[in-house]
Amino acid sequence: MRIQLNARNRAYDFDAAPDERILYAGLAARINLPYECGSGTCGTCRARLVTGEIDDRWPQAVSRKFLKRANEFLMCQCVARSDCTVEVASFVYNMDPGACFPAFHGGTIRYTKALTHDVNSFSVELAQPTDFDAGQFVTMQVPGVAGYRGYSMVNFERATSQLDFVIKKKSGGGCSEWLFKGGADGAHVDLFGPLGTATFYPTLGKNILCIAGGSGVAGMMSILERARQERYFE
Ligand SMILES: Cc1cc2nc3c(=O)[nH]c(=O)nc-3n(C[C@H](O)[C@H](O)[C@H](O)COP(=O)(O)OP(=O)(O)OC[C@H]3O[C@@H](n4cnc5c(N)ncnc54)[C@H](O)[C@@H]3O)c2cc1C
Ligand code: FES
Q1: Could you tell me the CA-to-CA distances from 90 to 31, 35, 211 in Å, in that order?
Q2: Is 215 strand, coil or helix?
Q3: Are strands 160-168 and 188-195 parallel, antiparallel or unpaired?
Q4: Which one of 12, 36, 191, 202 has the fewest CB atoms closer than 10 angstroms to its CB?
Q5: What spacing in Å lies between the alpha carbon of 36 and ligand 2's midpoint?
């Protein structure tokens, strides 16, 4: 399916596969579409459908409350059913040539370990190595659970084949229950990323103050790992 995206500053064209979220298709084409969570909670990816047909893969998404105008939809939850023209209210640019470009990845869950009664760590061994910036996250789809969840990497390594995560259990949560019930090691998962702009670059040359609540500490761990590797605090 061909998607024409009209932004405030210019128009873009990209292809979306039949089951591919429009947001992910645009980001994979290296177009910096607006998003924050990539998983249906923030409303930042809202767009207006001008022509064409879409399917909403999560009509109950909480961030639908941010949709006010006619024909608005969430690009992170909707897939195209035909060629579409969509419109976003913001300025949109191509990604910088030096960026870590988001893409679809397949991986295998490894080394699941309970850290406390409601916090687990685990790794995903990727089929292909990838780069990400310290502080970034991926969205992940696990077997038998609808939709993608965002998880921040806690490690930092260039061209890595292993992403490490720390997960807080949410009672009754689809992904949480699946990960905490045991037996996840060896399972295949689908990832999209890296995503997110709350990143750290050592060339910044400034003091760092990291503030996180709950599982937000994960991205900070990656930032501190990168700072340690670069002897930033010395
Ligand atoms: C950028 C970002 C980084 C994060 N990093 C971490 C981290 O490092 N560690 C951590 O523990 N948590 C992290 N989270 C929270 C994490 O994504 C999950 O929300 C949390 O683990 C609970 O997931 P669950 O499946 O157990 O709960 P659920 O209640 O089943 O789902 C929670 C979220 O999953 C999505 N979702 C649920 N159902 C559907 C559906 N049918 N279709 C599509 N989407 C659906 C929605 O985003 C929903 O808010 C992060 C979230 C974001 C946005
Ligand atoms: S990016 Fe947050 S709701 Fe789509």
Answers
A1: 13, 11, 28
A2: helix
A3: unpaired
A4: 202
A5: 6
